[in-house]
């Protein structure tokens, strides 16, 4: 173990051959710390780091950034820096992504709260070497190097560093939650706190450990995927047991479940007759209470969303990634056994014609009212069920006390035929 740590430190010299990522010209960060200033009063408390490459859905990174800033209050944002490594050699993609981000997030960029960096292609080992070194044809070597550059750049931006991915949404006030957990751990030394049990999502480091982590990733980038290297790094720095922090604060934008190996996999359909719940994002203006979050109402497992003291007009809205043709909608509130904590007066609306970023539907149609906290509505009129982009549960009368939104289930028209044909 000590030998591997020694090798990691020796790698500091070897990694000099890799050029450091540079801030994109239009996004040079506001100066926070310099080598000549031991004290930096403008140092952020937390840096959130994201490495992003090309994706089938180019909006994923934008939605993640929207979620980050939306989930943070103005006070919290003053303690936050978001660092994005645009990690792809395609200059066309790079320009388009920079343009989108600069259009949507110019206030955060000007305030120094959002920084974009890019490592040029010649900073990486030759592609042929990476292909030869990758095990079983899995190209995680590039991902490890991408993140080595990310954490290296982040080392001097803040006191703590949080690693996220580019396809997630964040719990409201996640910064306050993390700050509280760090305070409670003051008397207990730690290397890594984990605010998600999925892959390398939601991992919190001390920024002082980031240079060693960068060199560690550059030394072993061809050995293992990132989500397996990080636990190894933790044990090398003498934290033998993972510290899992609940409630989990970060989730993928799609429905996922995790297993004991902390790898995420798409949630499996219950059966061909069960609900489909196409991918989407969940937004609400209801209070978040205890450990259950809004998106848990849209999963196909037994999790649920718990809130309290809702007011007339409050809503929980599912915004689908792509419009869907729905044949049935089911909404279940309250406990299964005794029916407590139901929504006493509520209705479900279907929305169409999304606009903006983040998207919102510009028109809604009433689908039905909840009866004893439940609604199970077949959609017979195709004009209502086709091209649906939003499903909105609306509170029609204020009520005091707890509320459980157990499930929002969606069935797509002809989805079973499509699944059967693909299987």
Automatic annotation (TrEMBL):
Coiled coil: none
Domain annotation MGAT4 conserved region: ranges: 46-238
One GO MF term attached to the UniProt entry: acetylglucosaminyltransferase activity
Residue span of region Disordered: 1-33
Basic and acidic residues: compositionally biased ranges: 1-10
GO BP of this protein: protein N-linked glycosylation
Superkingdom as given in the UniProt entry: Eukaryota
Protein name as annotated: MGAT4 conserved region domain-containing protein
């Amino acid at each position: 173990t000590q030998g591997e740590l020694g090798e990691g430190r020796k790698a500091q010299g070897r990694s000099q051959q890799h050029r450091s990522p540079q801030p994109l010209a239009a996004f040079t960060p506001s100066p926070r710390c310099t080598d000549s200033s031991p004290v930096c009063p403008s140092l952020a408390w937390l840096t959130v780091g994201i490495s992003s490459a090309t994706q089938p859905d180019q909006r994923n990174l934008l939605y993640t950034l929207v979620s980050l800033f939306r989930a943070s209050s103005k006070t919290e944002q003053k303690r936050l820096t978001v660092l994005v490594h645009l990690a792809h050699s395609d200059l066309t993609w790079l320009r388009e992504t920079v343009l989108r981000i600069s259009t949507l997030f110019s206030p955060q960029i000007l305030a120094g709260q959002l920084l974009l960096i890019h490592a040029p292609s010649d900073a990486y080992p030759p592609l042929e070497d990476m292909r030869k070194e990758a095990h079983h044809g899995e190209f995680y070597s590039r991902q490890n190097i991408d993140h080595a550059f990310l954490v290296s750049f982040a080392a001097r931006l803040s006191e703590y560093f949080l690693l996220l991915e580019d396809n997630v949404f964040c719990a409201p006030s996640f910064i306050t939650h993390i700050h509280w957990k760090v305070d409670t751990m003051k008397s207990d030394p730690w290397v890594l706190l984990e605010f998600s049990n999925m892959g390398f999502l939601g991992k919190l480091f001390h920024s002082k450990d980031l240079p060693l982590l960068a060199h560690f990733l550059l030394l072993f980038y061809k050995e293992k995927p990132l989500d397996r290297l990080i636990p190894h790094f933790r044990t090398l720095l003498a934290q033998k047991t993972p510290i899992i922090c609940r409630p989990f604060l970060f989730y993928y934008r799609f429905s996922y479940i995790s297993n004991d190996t902390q790898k995420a996999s798409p949630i499996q359909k219950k059966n061909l007759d069960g609900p489909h719940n196409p991918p989407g994002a969940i937004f609400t203006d209801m209070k978040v209470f205890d450990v259950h979050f809004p998106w848990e109402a849209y999963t196909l497992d037994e999790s649920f969303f718990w809130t309290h003291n809702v007011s007339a007009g409050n809503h929980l809205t599912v915004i689908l990634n792509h419009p869907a043709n729905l044949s049935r909608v089911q909404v279940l509130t309250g406990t299964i056994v005794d029916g407590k904590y139901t929504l006493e007066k509520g209705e479900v609306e279907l929305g169409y014609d999304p606009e903006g970023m983040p998207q919102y539907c510009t028109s809604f149609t009433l689908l039905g009212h909840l009866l004893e906290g439940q609604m199970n509505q077949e959609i017979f009129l195709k004009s209502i069920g086709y091209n649906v982009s939003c499903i909105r549960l609306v509170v029609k009368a204020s009520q005091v006390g707890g509320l459980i939104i157990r499930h929002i289930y969606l069935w797509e028209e002809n989805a079973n035929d499509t699944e059967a044909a693909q299987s």
